[in-house]
Amino acid sequence: xxxxxxxTEEEExxxxxxxxxxxxxxxxxxxxxxxYILRKYPNARxxxxxxTIIYLRKFTELGKYIKYIxxxxxxxxxxxxxxxxxxxxxxQEEGKYPPTDPxxxxxxxxxxxxxxxxxxxx
Length: 122
Fold this sequence. Notes:
This protein is mostly helical.
């Protein structure tokens, strides 16, 4: 641990102890979970990718498939999720590669319509 009592990146790969496991089970909302991660892993404050990976490891079944990745490696790719999402969005706005799930298409159309209604007011 560092001098603030936070885990270092090396320690992050360790097995969760019983006390921490109980705490993790008490955290129900995304906000509570993110706050826990930001408090416990300071480098997550600097990288949404790192924050996301820790969240997935701690709070989803994906955690058993995601092994420890050093922060130094992750920070090279920070911002990549947003770039990927924006590229997909731009291609789909051009009419290319629409969603294959009809529910996803409906949800995105509803959000786009809400956005169009709100924007003239701003």
